[in-house]
Amino acid sequence: MPTPPTPPTARPLTPAARRVLDSAHELFYTRGINTVGMDLLAEHAGITKKTIYDRFGSKDALVVAYLSERDRRWRAYLNGRLAPLPDARARVLATYDALGEWLAGHGRRGCAMVNACAELPDPEHPGRRVAREQKEWTRGLYRDLAAGTGAADPGPLGDALLMLHEGATVAFTVLGATDSAATARRAADALLPSS
User: Fold this and answer.
1) For the chain, which terminus, N or C, has the lower number of CB atoms within 10 Å?
2) Those residues with Cβ within 8 angstroms of residue 166's Cβ, 6 or more apart along the chain or in another chain
3) pTM higher than 0.90, yes or no?
């Protein structure tokens, strides 16, 4: 399985930095990156703005840390779900089961990476790099899994599986389609080569 990205900083988080990152995780995801200022973050974390800047340097760096951690959590969750499965077909289908469970428990506002890209219009923003890397990883995962199924052309199949994944996320968020991941799973099953 592909591994999670390396953390943006090599030094371990202090307790205050952990509180800041936990607050950023909650506030950036529920309220949006651009609507959450450093004053609100400091108040929510119970620390000073100076502490935020001492620990992270800038809001951009905090955004990168937030997105990187969310990405690591998702990859660890998904890899944990896929690792024990016997074959690529079962792993492909399990990605949609995992997605449905993740959305129900952690995704009421959809994909944090897509949300960040919508809020960070500068294509060179470091937060967009994290989002792009996460989507590239997901694309690579689906292509690798498609190749493992014996598909004649695994690249396009992997891309189609990714589109089902992303579409399920949007349908869950925008339409309130709580069964979107299950629908995507059925569509994926129809696309996979016969066993």
Assistant:
1) C
2) 111, 114
3) no
